[in-house]
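Progress against Task 2.4 (sequence-to-structure conversion) is shown through the following example record, which the project officer requested during the mid-term review.
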Amino acid sequence: MHSNHLLLEEPIRMASILEPSKSSFFPAMTKIVGTLGPKSRSVEVISGCLKAGMSVARFDFSWGNPEYHQGTLENLKAAVKTTKKLCAVMLDTVGPELQVVNKSGNSISLLADGFVILTPDQEQEASSKVLPINFDGLSKAVKHGDTIFVGQYLFTGSETTSVWLEVSEVKGNDVVCVIKNSATLAGSLFTLHASQIRIELPTLSDKDKEVISTWGVQNKIDFLSLSYTRHAEDVRNAREYLSKLGDLYQTQIFAKIENIEGLTHFDEILQEADGIILSRGNLGIDLPPEKVFLFQKAALYKCNMAGKPAVVTRVVDSMTDNLRPTRAEATDVANAVLDGSDAILLGAETLRGLYPIETISTVGKICAEAEKVFNQDLYFKKTVKYVGEPMTHLESIASSAVRAAIKVKSSVIICFTSSGRAARLIAKYRPTMPVLSVVIPRLKTNQLKWSFSGAFEARQSLIVRGLFPMLADPRHPAESTSATNESILKVALDHGKASGVIKSHDRVVICQKVGDASVVKIIELED
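Structure tokens generated for the chain above:
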């Protein structure tokens, strides 16, 4: 694993770039979130996605009804059973998303320099003259000269399937716009995005709450992706709502930053959220193109230092219809990894794309190559400096474990954890080797029945770079005599051997609690 660790800061032999990559059990340390939909909901395709490297399945409630998504989820469960690969579930809310309602589903052609009216009257038929929308406050929110984008799912800007409009005048509740580019809108639903304009709608809509309290509770969702997060208050409200819904108090909230408002309150949102999704599709409309990279780098750095997972979206749009990404996209995926992202989120590429499995596989390969040249040494120093002194007890143990693992060229770090926090802290220092997080279930009771915790914690580490969970036997507590830990350690080592990350004579760093003390130890394996 280490022999092929190059650094971009050092001269690389050009010929070595062409050497084929060695395949490994973990396709990449960077995780891949796949959105399941029409082209990726059969057991067969989902199994292929899991084998190709998807570890989180996203269910986007902007379209489709709960029954449809339930069918997809049942197929996911079947695929997890047959492939024996864990997969977490993410529910993506609709939030204050503005939509054009096209009941007939006929395609609509708009010609440059013509006029089109946006109206809240949803009884009207969508046509090249009138577009009915699901929001009646647009006329109050916009003024002459404002920009509005309309397109399917999201817009790349290069598509002929999205259009940008400029507000010409406001007539009562209607907004009259000049069409700036010719385009054909196809499908029954298009998103509408008013650039840099505050839309007075709740972040968690009533429809979202209904879906979360029924579908979400029934399926014990691991992650809630909170669309259009604009303030820390949005995250607090969502958390308060989840805390009343049985098991969902354990669900992690990922704030989706999609507009200027979310960007300006980024720091306080990051403090409240469990992770961040950089929704570059919508952000790319709100931000001037030359600022997009800057936001990405700054946001990922902040997430890394806070030790919270960061997810980047919209990386290989062209793979929706093509087998290969463009050169810019391939470079973009690698840069997201080098910038420090934990996971890459695929939307349309797997949802309605023609090549869901190939897309996941391609993105995984690019991530793996980028990880080889990730400057861990520099990153480690930066993180330690940022954390400062005195470090907390856990933080110092985690950073020591990573430093030890790198010094002794350990093939894997094994961490025993019950809440998952220790393992996430180790992953925060981005070790060059995989971290096997052995989640030890804890027995809990509500006076009526016994239940084990641990499954949530294990699945939630599936979105953190370099963290690979396994659930231990509940008969072994996490902080205990060394004897019980020896037996779990054996299970963890066997798992590592079976998956090919550990070989005989390898060194392994182990992080565990013994009594009240946290211990980092290094063991060398015999034959």
